Structure formats: C-alpha cells, structure tokens
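Standup notes
- DV: blocked on the single-chain target, sequence here:
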Amino acid sequence: MKLAEMQVAEFVNVMASDAPAPGGGSAAALEGALGAALTAMVCALTVGKKKYADVQELAVESQKKADGLKARFVDVIDRDTEAFNAVSAVFAMPKDTDEQKAARKAAMQEALKGCTKTPFEMMQLSCEALELTRSLVGRLNASAASDLGCAALSLKAAVQGAWLNVLINISGINDEAFVSEYRSGGQALLDKALPLADEIYAEILKAM
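- DV (later): unblocked, structure below
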C-alpha cells in the first residue's frame, strides 16, 4: 500500500518503527501537503460568502492552486521513500570483482541523486505554496486567519526538513557540478521561503 493511502495512525506507526523509510523526507512532504490543504481550506471557507463577494474570484482561483500543490506534495510522499529504497537496494548488489564494485559505486551515485531531487522538489513546492498563502493574508475569511498561520508553519517545516534531506544526500555525491547546483539552488529556496513563512506568521499574530 502506498504511504499516501494509509490511515493517519497507520502512517505514523510505520514512521515510528525501525523501518528506515518513510523518514524525514516523507514527513516533510506530508507537512507540505498539510500546509497547502490548510490554505485550500481557507479559500473554501471564503467561496460563496456574501461578506467576501469582492474576493470570490481570488478565492476560487487560489483554492485550485492550493489543491494542486497539495496533490503534488502527496505524490512526492511516496516518491521520496521510493528514492531511498533505491539507495538501500544498492547494498544488495554484488561487490566481489572490480567491475561489480565499480557498478555498485555508480549505482549508489545515481541513487543518491534521486534522493536529492525529491526533497529539492519539496522545497520548490513549499515556496510556491508560501507565496500563495502570503498573497491571501488579510483578504479571505477572517475567521480562518489562524489556519493560514498554521499553513505557514507547516510549509516552513516542510522546506526546512526537505533542505536537511538535500544536504545529507549531496554529502555523498562526487559529482561537483550536481552538488553545487543543488546546494546553491536549495539555499536560494530556503532564503526565499523562511522570510515568507515568518512574515505570514507575524501578520496573522498581529491580527489576533
């Protein structure tokens, strides 16, 4: 069964077990999905409300965007674990001859690159979701303002958790160009996401 199809209790029990995956990467993706879902919810609570007649188009379009981001986060929950499983599979490869050792080393490098790409994707999605959420602060259903704050916190956890996973994987990669691309790209995404999340939280807190 896919992780994304599990019930909540089952998912957290698997994560709490001695199984190496799912781990922090899938948890970060779940945090992102929760953040996007909360943003979608605030939009849904605005759609159809006469009090917010002037922002109906914004609410409808933003709900579609948030739902799309949520679905992409959910998809990467399983893909991140699948990427880690590819790393685990390398350890089962034979290493008796020089050729086998070389093949094993090459396979590990490719597997680690796969394990880098999924959390990097989470960081990109987190930035998109935070930008969307920021654009909605103070404009949608005021009764659900705290939910937008919670969305920002979940997305902040997602981007930071994903960044840790990028870092741990590139530490084992020998391809300097790849490492440089994902280190600099990830840092740029982090530098963009964290101020956005903090700004959202501060604005919501000020309005409480």
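- Follow-up: The chain has a mean pLDDT of 95.
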